[in-house]
Design brief:
A: alpha/beta, B: alpha/beta, 7-stranded mixed sheet, 6-stranded antiparallel beta barrel, 5 helices, globular
Chain lengths: 301, 248
């Protein structure tokens, strides 16, 4: 019996462990069997190619990582013509494509292009990346915009439509409800928090753009609280991420209401973190004769 | 193909000035490592930390050496490990230096840029004429080479290694420069090579998260159009003419 089976809206998965967009590549399959993952989430693509932000782009803090990659990617045309066939060649697990646009029109145009492409099982709509100006983040912070965007996207596809929310909002429940009302079949949260570090010898920010996206162990309590709040506000399932490094971390998110979890920065710290999380969850559930769905959202108090 | 392994430390050699050489034993890794390539290394620690990219310093039979300077939390954790302790290793990673024949070659390193060039020197065919220049801040930063330079004059010649290189090319024809060191040194060296029509390949150091090409965190500017390439995949060895030194 597979105790770890789960689902996100329209998709059923053999494992509740996946990976956060931009933190994982097929390169990691040199280190473990990909089938321990429920799905593969691609790095976010944009309509036009993006060179990304100037370096330095990374700084490791006492409790996590600040990054300012800037969605470096080759653009949707190259993704569809080159990256997508390569991914389908290599993957035995469902593929979720993450994408981000600079306007509702652009988001819709991208989804239409992806819809006529082979080998995509679902979409993660990134309305929450903090590293690009005038993109993403503006969509993720306004409930009316999230509703309108989701409504238009859901009219284009019957595939799994995951709206990825930003933690940098005052009320995650309002945004989550707007996405659900617009037709999202599931939610992903959280993206990175705003973060900064300064070199006191020079007075300069550790990363070139000043403020970046903060991920890793330091954001886990925030991610957990937002998962809990969102899960209580909506009926659609949640893919949770934010500082999950171990199976114990993952369990907290399932209890808080997540149906699936993603490892992000953890992949950099431990390249077999996803495999270890999968194994640990399996043992935990077996020892208690439970299935994953028995604990989702069952936090006490 | 790169691999992720947990390997016992075979030997640690403590050197001066916070430098140490860490040896591991692995037949597969030893067979694959080429001069210029690096591995991601990590010591087991109480708090989760990123791996540290460390150049391959030497390969003898089935043993691989890494020459490391203690500079921060990650390298400090490596420095306090003991023989037999388990080390996490991802590698080998990145590109390697070109291995030419029948050339007049100068190797130029600065500080912790020394190890990959020391390894490269062992691999260069004897048909080449090779001169190895190394520079550091002080005597603690100086290691075996043909000519060394220190900023404070405590060992070798009191000068920047780039000044030594300029003097060298006044008296000797040079086809190719292969270098590794801090960006200001590499940038100056690149300008000298360009002005004198000398081919130059530089190995860059960069802050990295994944080391395998996923995160794009270690990107450096290439060309004049504001494009970026990853030090961990397209590098660390680059044709210096391709790099946009103004973006460094």
């Amino acid at each position: 019996m597979n105790r770890l089976k789960t689902r996100l809206g329209k998709l059923h998965f053999e494992s509740p462990v996946t990976v956060a967009s931009g933190t994982f590549g097929t390169e990691y399959f040199d280190f473990f069997d990909q089938r321990i993952l429920g799905a593969y989430v691609s790095k976010t693509i944009t309509y036009e190619p993006k060179a990304g932000n100037p370096p330095p782009r990374l700084y490791e803090t006492e409790a996590g990582l600040i990054n300012s990659i800037g969605l470096q990617n080759p653009g949707i045309d190259v993704f569809i013509k080159s990256s997508l066939p390569e991914l389908r060649e290599k993957l035995y697990i469902p593929l979720v494509v993450s994408f981000s646009g600079s306007s509702i029109t652009e988001f819709c145009a991208m989804l239409e292009m992806l819809e006529i492409s082979e080998g995509i099982d679902g979409y993660e709509v990134n309305v929450s990346c903090p590293n690009v100006e005038n993109e993403g983040i503006a969509f993720g912070t306004d409930p009316d915009t999230v509703f309108e965007l989701t409504q238009k996207l859901s009219a284009i596809t019957n595939k799994e439509l995951i709206i990825k929310l930003s933690p940098n909002v005052s009320d995650i429940a309002t945004i989550a409800i707007a996405a659900e009302a617009g037709g999202a079949s599931s939610l992903a949260l959280i993206n990175t928090l705003f973060g900064m570090a300064i070199d006191i010898e020079t007075g300069k920010s550790r990363i070139k753009k000043g403020v970046g996206g903060y991920s890793g162990t330091g954001i886990k309590p925030v991610a957990l609280a937002l998962t809990y709040k969102a899960a209580r506000a909506v009926k659609i399932p949640i893919l949770a991420m934010g500082g999950i490094y171990t199976w114990q971390d993952a369990l907290e998110f399932f209890y808080a209401g997540a149906s699936m979890i993603a490892l992000g920065t953890a992949n950099f710290i431990n390249p077999i973190a996803a495999a270890e999380a999968h194994h640990g969850l399996d043992v935990y559930l077996a020892q208690r004769d439970l299935r994953l769905k028995d604990i989702v959202g069952k936090v006490n108090g | 193909m790169k691999s992720y392994k947990i390997l016992p430390i075979w030997r640690i050699e403590r050197l001066k000035g916070g430098y140490f050489v860490l040896w591991i034993e692995d037949t597969e890794l030893a067979a694959q490592c080429r001069p210029g390539q690096f591995c991601e290394l990590k010591a087991p620690q109480g708090i989760p930390r990123l791996f540290k990219p460390i150049s391959v310093f030497d390969v003898i039979q089935d043993r691989v050496a890494f020459f490391i300077k203690t500079v921060g939390a990650g390298t400090n954790a490596l420095s306090v490990m003991r023989e037999g302790d388990l080390l996490q290793v991802i590698g080998p990673l990145g590109t390697s230096f070109p291995i030419p024949n029948n050339k007049s070659i100068v190797l130029v390193s600065g500080g912790v840029g020394y190890p990959p060039l020391a390894f490269l020197k062992k691999h260069l065919p004897s048909s080449n004429q090779v001169r190895f220049l190394h520079g550091g801040a002080c005597a603690d930063d100086v290691f075996p080479c043909d000519e060394c330079f220190t900023v404070d004059g405590s060992a070798g010649i009191k000068a920047f290694v780039t000044e030594g290189f300029m003097r060298l090319i006044e008296t000797r024809h040079v086809d190719l420069v292969l270098s590794c060191g801090p960006v200001p040194m590499l940038k100056a060296l690149s300008a000298i090579c360009k002005a004198n029509g000398i081919k130059h390949f530089a190995s860059l150091e960069a802050y990295m998260a994944c080391g395998v090409g996923v995160c794009h965190g270690c990107a450096v500017g290439v060309g004049s159009k504001g494009d970026y390439q990853r030090v961990c995949v397209e590098g660390p060895v680059f044709d210096a003419d391709d790099l946009n030194w103004e973006l460094m």
